[in-house]
């Protein structure tokens, strides 16, 4: 093969090798947790004074922190999340359901180089069961 054809081929191979392939290291999220209610996967994200829930059907709910004697309590008037640490119960329409198997959601470790982060695709949406 002539040298003129090998150079572009070698450059393309080098670019493709750097575009992916390897697995990205994952770390536990500091504020997002995966839990199960009756076998279905729910996501909880705790922010300053707020708990955000993502149901298996994609419904999103914001609950606001209220004072309690012990543990945590979040409510929006219709739903309530309360408990201690990761021993939580979600009450909706008068039915209390325990969140089981809560654990930090694993997320890709961010590259410390901001230029490389800019070119990385966004993570997939955390939906599904």
Tell me the overall shape. globular
User: Uncertain spans, ≥5 residues at pLDDT below 50?
Assistant: 9-18
Content-based structural category = alpha+beta
* Helical coverage, percent range: 10-25%
- For the record, give the distance between the C-alpha atoms at the N and C termini, rounded to a whole number: 52 Å
Strand content: over 45%
Count every helix, treating DSSP H or I runs of 4 or more residues as helices.
Answer: 2
Order of helices and strands: HEEEEEEEEH
> What is the count of β-strands?
8
The average pLDDT is 80
Largest sheet: 8 strands, antiparallel, barrel
Assembly status = single chain
Q: Biggest sheet: strands side by side, in what order?
A: 1-2-3-4-5-6-7-8
Q: Evaluate the radius of gyration.
A: 22 Å
